[in-house]
Amino acid sequence: MVWPDERPRAPLSSAEAFARLRLLRSPRVGAVTYYHLLASHGSAAAALDALPGLAARGGAAYRPADPARIRAEMDALDAMGGRYLFHDDPHYPDLLAQMEGAPPILSLLGEGALLDQPGVAIVGARNASAAAMRLAREFAAALVAQGYAAVSGMARGVDAAAHRGALLPGTAAQGGGTIGVIGGGLDKPYPPENIDLHGVMAREGLLVAEMPMGTEPQARHFPRRNRIIAGLCAGTVVVEAAPGSGSLITARLAGEVGREVMAIPGSPLDSRAHGCNQLIRDGAILVQTPSDVIELIESFTGTPRSTFREPAHGLSPVFVPPTDEGPADIEPLLGVAPIAVDELVRQSGASPGAVQLALLELELAGRLIRHAGGRVSLG
Question: Average pLDDT, whole number, for the chain?
């Protein structure tokens, strides 16, 4: 898989690529912790060497991910014809990089160049009406024909309809296409009725996954998938959604990072339209045609016209340089209620680096939980 205009990038050795994947797959190393470890140690190899000592100071023994398991995962992706995309690769999407806890490593299968196209998410109900699926197909086909990437989550209903509309013959003449974000590993198509779509997407579109190869899709993975869908796109269109659906989570995440949130209105007699109608009441832009969407996205400058917002809690974490001070004594300040890291810095009087070091030690020892918005609590 190559991009037609390969841009220069800092060389990443195969050993460091392996170490990065092993670091991310190690116990209790999430995206935020991964970035902190890289910032403080300079390389994944050095961070891996430091993990047992950090965890020991937090009060627990620690063993990084088994190298044999990492090699097997890499071999499985290579056998499928896929590749990894690292957070500092020049082709890593700028919009996704702006998300809190952006995935440090993505698995890709298909046309990687689609990540360079402007993206619009099209999401909606799994038990969608025939009218909603027709709208999803038509919107996706029209957007792709104008050079956009139609992004969705490979689920049944609206998602699948959007992908199929984007794959209609002749729609991708202007360089557009469709990106499917998987809730499990790339080798685990879900749901079963979309296995054929999975194969077509791998050949004619792009499949993206954050989870390791072999990971079965589970409900707890879908919010992470939804944040990638929202993060890849300048705007999200909700076609049909009941209150509390995953599509509304995607819209909320898009609103949190200042992207356009759009919704197609529906009949108040249909419960599947209540989510869209509520979004519009809360400030999402009402759209009725693909041209409405294109107009919003083409004029998007980073300040959306939609006023729909779900305010994020606190600030995104700031990655700090190494410190020679040692860890701050912050454990007495922590409890089961989440608190912002910035507040820990203020209350402890310690430097940000010393606070982050203490948080790393507690997290690697399994005693800390990270929450959205740069907040933490004891676990």
Answer: 91
